Amino acid sequence: MNAHDEWQALLPPEPAGPDDRAGASACRRRISFRRRQRKIPYVITLNLTAMIDTIFNLLFLFIIISRFGAIEGMLPARLPARVAQAAALPAAELPRVPIRIRLIPDAANPAGCRATIDRFNETPVELKALPAALRRIRDAGVGFDRATPVHLLARDDVAWDHVVNAYNAAMAAEFGKIYFAGSS
Amino acid sequence: MADARRQRGPAGWHFNMTPLIDVTFLLLTYFMLASHYASAEKPDIALPRPHESQAQDRPLQEKIYVNVLYYGPRSEPTLMLGPVRMESLDELRARLTVVGRADPQTQVVLRADRNVRYGEVRQVMEAVAAANLPRLQVVAELEPRP
Fold it and tell me: Please, which residues have CB within 8 angstroms of residue A3's CB and are 6 or more apart in sequence?
């Protein structure tokens, strides 16, 4: 006996005729039994499709608008000296002797740059050495301090990267008044 | 035997989506927390990279971006005021003058490519100064964290 026959054997017999009450009752039981058999177990399921769609959309959005480059910051700057000095200097304040940094292209390296400091470092130094040179001037006790204006003078063909590097060096040496001056 | 078959339910197969959803949520969280967003005002350019950078990432209230884009030594740099491309330095001067008249305290954020020549950036800075906008911020890369 296979599984189907086993299952059929469990069912009540068919009614013999219209007067067969017992058979009719058995038939109703049979129908009821079949309905129970057809009933699929009720399972609660969440439809996640809409949520997954939204999450993927958000993911694509963030991937597309994200920037993976270096993080940028700001250096507070002063305007070119001939304009800014006149505007920024109070009338009662005497002009101070500035420290002048001159940027010149590196003869040995066309992409490089060196710096001289008027009256102090006439021999060109690398930009990496500039903060230390400026600190020495500031700490030498010869009348220069953090309030001493620093003028950056660069030739027009010097790359902006080197000028910002020199500006950053003056900031690292804790000078507070740094000006982008005209060309050297 | 029949009971066991009924309990098993209808035959079928389906994907287990749980690991996929987990990974997707992790990626989404990563991008939301760790990314810096591109904007039309800040096009992707090679910023100056100073040694021991003193640049700081500070929020500014009223600001306007001036971008100087570099396309090689033989072509003129492209100027942008905010997201708008300027046809010439004169146009930039005119627009900055309008900004300077409206609010002289506006911070000008100068984003120039590191390869642009100083002479070209200096002209832009002079235009900013002439527009009565004394507050200038020069953008550079931040010092990488160890």
Answer: B1, B2, B5
Q: Touching check for A5 and chain B: CB below 8 Å?
A: no
pLDDT tens readout for residues A23-40: 667 667 666 666 666 666
- pTM for this one? 0.68
Q: Pick the closest to residue B138 from B112, B120, B100, B103 (CA basis).
A: B112
Residues of the domain holding A162: 99-182
Q: What is the DSSP letter of A80?
A: -
Is A155 in Cβ contact with B136 (below 8 Å)?
no
8 Å CB contact between A77 and B110: yes
Task: Say yes or no: B24 contacts chain A, CB-CB below 8 A.
Answer: yes
ipTM of the complex: 0.77
Look at residue A52 and tell me if it is in a domain: no
The minimal CB distance from A163 to the residues B27, B68, B118 is found for B118
